[in-house]
Design a protein that fits this description.
Elements (H helix, E strand, L loop, with lengths): L1 H11 L14 E8 L5 E2 L5 E2 L9 E6 L6 H14 L1 H5 L3 E6 L7 H10 L6 E4 L3 H11 L3 E3 L5 E3 L3 E4 L4 E6 L5 H10 L4
Helix pairs in contact: 2-6
Amino acid sequence: MRRVVLLGLLVLAGCGGGSKSPQTVGTPVDPPVSAPSFTLQDQSGKPVSPAAERGRWLVVTFLYTHCPDVCPLIAAQLDRAIATPTGRRAQLHVIAVSVDPPRDTLAAVRRYAVTHRLAPAFHWGIGSRAQLERVWRAYHVAAQPGPRGTVTHSTFEILVDPKGKERLIYDATIKASQLTGDLQKLGVA
């Protein structure tokens, strides 16, 4: 319920404006809560889950490979953050959970990862509609078919700390420098 209220505040505040802490660009999750657990398959065909990422910083987001606009920009910024010195020190990983189960196949996410030169620490989580809907519900994500083969979906990123606690939420305008700056403020040297 707390996440629903926080996400509602993000929407009402222009997705990241309003009452965010002056120390971070991301909106704090206060108090931090455990990131919901799930296990999906990534572009390598291996299981990927927030629990497996304990001990390192993680970003969980919701994207799809056929997105014509926002998703590639988010993926590029998160991938850039992974490659920075701060991202490397944080052992930053990303799990992009699919919001398009019929088209985000293993072949599609592999092709996307190669075409966009995603770092090995960038995992694209795929699964059946039922598997993905459980994750969407846990993270309060809406995903509906849109016009011309698009998917209308919630667009946000959650920064999860090495203990598995949600710390900050970002909107679709996230920049690598903002994420790495926040990581530094949260103690990644």
